Amino acid sequence: MSIITEAQLEKLDVIEKFQLRRKCAENNDIENLLTIAKYNFNSGSAASNVTNLPELCYYYGRLQRGEELKSLLNEKSFLYFMLPDSCKELAKQLFNIGSKFPHLNENEVQFLEDNYCDSKTFELFDIIMFDCILLPRPIKKFDKESLNMDNKNFSKEFLLEIYSCFSENEGLDGSYDKLYVYSRIENKIIQKEYEHLGIGEWCIMQPILSNEFWNLMKENFGEDCANALTKELCYDDDDLEDFRNQNFYLLGADSIEAAASNYFKDSSTVVALKTLVAKFWLEKINSQKINLI
After folding, report:
1. Strand order in 188-192's β-sheet?
2. Least buried of 191, 217, 227, 257, by fewest C-beta within 10 Å?
């Protein structure tokens, strides 16, 4: 493959750049992979550079160009300091591993395997481990097919636990709090900080849009009930028609439960409503098709 330039990369959209990056990995073309990673880092946001920096550092390590990396990070220090410590630590480890590759000890090989199996870091490692066959032993990797597990038949207890997590997450106010997260792959609730969320994992919050809620209530409790609940949940009667028909009003779990408790005479119906909302959210999550580039 010919040498890739920044001018060429400027003309490509995100998907085209990813496809080019994949092709370079298939060709074991570290020089061009470094060019792409450097371009992505220099033009990236704080969010995208969480993966761009570790990838960049790995290639610099593989090419034994540590001084060039140090110069780049000094020049782009404002980009570097915006990144979380976990990203910087991963970048440091990948530079060191890249510098020694493929002559790694078992701890280093295990580190690569653990990250290749992690839903958070899988996509990055699926690129940089293009020649993992050279390692002292084979390493396992994330099962991409598991991303599209279609889980069904949720128990009442699980649905109520999901609903409780909606409320718990909505009550958190600290960016470093661990969130309740739904893992579609494992079909269970886990806890993670937001920055550690991986592919196939969803933060359990704001379960339903107002138009979805109106339709769900109409289908299960009748139109009068749907109208009454949405009227109580809508802040302004002038917006009520849009509230029932448009898809840009997200509802909170506590507000839904309060409205339901005011409307229904018995608590068992409120519980039934909560399970319906939780089931709707889970089915929506499980119906999404995840396509990796």
Report:
1. 188-192, 179-183, 201-203
2. 191
